[in-house]
């Protein structure tokens, strides 16, 4: 996963781009979980959100690994 992405001459590490995508996906998943009421079953929401973010980041990195 070593590389960079160029946005109008600004070079960003590829991991930063994936982290921003995972953050956007986390925002959507959190809203979905809150709307369905599934957060009532979560013991520690902050730890759950962190674990969910890491899972989304891992999934995005696996899905985009063929782009290198």
From TrEMBL:
Q: Pfam families of this UniProt entry? A: DUF1656
Top-level lineage group = Bacteria
Q: Which residues cross the membrane?
A: 7-29, 41-60
User: What keywords appear on the UniProt entry?
Assistant: Cell membrane, Membrane, Transmembrane, Transmembrane helix
Record's protein name = DUF1656 domain-containing protein
- Origin species, per record, is Variovorax paradoxus (strain EPS)
């Amino acid at each position: 996963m070593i590389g960079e992405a160029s946005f109008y001459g600004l070079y960003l590490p590829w991991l930063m781009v994936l982290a921003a995508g995972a953050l956007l996906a986390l925002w959507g998943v959190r809203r979905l979980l809150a709307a369905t009421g599934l957060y009532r079953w979560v013991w520690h929401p902050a730890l759950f959100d962190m674990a969910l973010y890491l899972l989304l980041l891992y999934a995005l990195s696996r899905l985009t690994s063929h782009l290198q």
